[in-house]
Write a structure and sequence with these properties.
- By secondary structure, this protein is mainly β.
- The chain has 4 domains: 75 residues, Sandwich (Immunoglobulin-like); 87 residues, Sandwich (Immunoglobulin-like); 90 residues, Immunoglobulin-like, CATH 2.60.40.10; 98 residues, Immunoglobulin-like (Sandwich), CATH 2.60.40.4070.
- 4% of the residues lie in helices and 53% in strands.
- It has 1 helix and 35 strands.
- The protein has a 5-stranded mixed sheet with strand order 2-8-7-4-5, with no helix packed on it. The chain has a 5-stranded mixed sheet with strand order 10-16-15-12-13, with no helix packed on it.
- A hairpin with a 4-residue loop joins strand 7 and strand 8.
- The longest helix has 17 residues.
- InterPro entries: FlgD/Vpr_Ig-like, Ig-like_fold, PKD/Chitinase_dom, PKD_dom, PKD_dom_sf.
Amino acid sequence: MLILSFLCIGIVNAADDTTETPVASFSADVTEGKVPLEVQFTDTSSGDPTSWEWDFGDGETSDSQNASHVYTEAGAFDVSLTVSNANESNSVTEVGYISTNTIPVVDIDYIRPNPAIEGDTVSLVGIYVYNYTAITRGNHEWYSYLEERVICPGRTLYTGNLEVGNHTISFRAKDSEDQWSDPVYGSVLILENNPPEASIDSITPNHALKGEEVTFIGSGTDDDGVVNGSIIHEYKWESSIDGMLSTSNQSSFSSSNMSVGTHTITLKVKDHMSSSLPVSATLIVKGDTEYIQVSSEKAISANNPVNIVFDVNDTNLTSLEFSITDSNDAVILTKDITDELDSGIYSFEWDATDSQGEPLQSGAYKLSLLGTDSFGDSISEGMILNVDHTPPVIVIDDITGVITHEDIVYASSDLTVTISGSGYI
């Protein structure tokens, strides 16, 4: 009996000696990356553990020996493993063992105005929701699915260059590791621009005397309404004799420098993008002569002849003649028109040529009218006519448009070409 007891004790002691105390350890196939990050954990513990308890640091656990876990949030996570066997348990914690971040997250702050009129400046503004510090300048993309192109590489876009139509717009950004955010979507409706309409409301006085102040009043209407702060952005007044009179955002102006002659006054108005068709009216400016009237007193040439009218209807003239002389008083053209009066009126067109039909040199010429009535009294009037055969010279001073970058104006934008010139244009 004693021998049997010792044998039993010996058997128990032998079993305890063969079971080791476990020591926890583990490894992972990846320890950092972008979410969602799947990590395969491998148990490398010693001591023959029979149970495992994983804590992944994000509130999730597992009792598998080799665990797989997906991290869905960005951060640094402590990972713990507790192993046990029949003898006891052991734990190990790796602080900050798993590090995750996320791809950029963006959103569209606003697109306005929306809808917009063709050529209107539309603002598209994106914002960063997450991981904005990793996004570098220029790593953005605004894309129009209507135009099938990237319309801007910046976070903010101001453009008046969107085509007419309903645009689906996407916005995304790329971080320093060349990881794109998921795109976010918006839309903007671009309506076709309707050109404005111009109207000349009044030109007063008409007829006017040379040097008298003439007031021009116009107006413009536009079915598009207020765009970029105004309905009509520009009023452009021109004269067939004096050229450009006024270009401004004011509908009216006055001038006391109108040349003698019959002016065709033209008005065009412009909205934010396009100009109206021109409208016109006639303005007659008389000189300080009683009997001589001309359609123009300047820029006379073969291509721009002047209509000259002598009206002596209220006189009892027995003789009447006119002459045109140069600055040296040399006679260029002279004619007795006594027998050619029609109810006291004689008119003709002069194209700046002499009596032989040869073109005159550019310069100032004097038109004189001399007559005698039945009482022996005389009438005498004169005025200066300016001949100008100088060919027009056009200089492009500037080109601007809705979309201008350095020296480039994009062809599909509205262009404004500023010119200067000399000669009759």
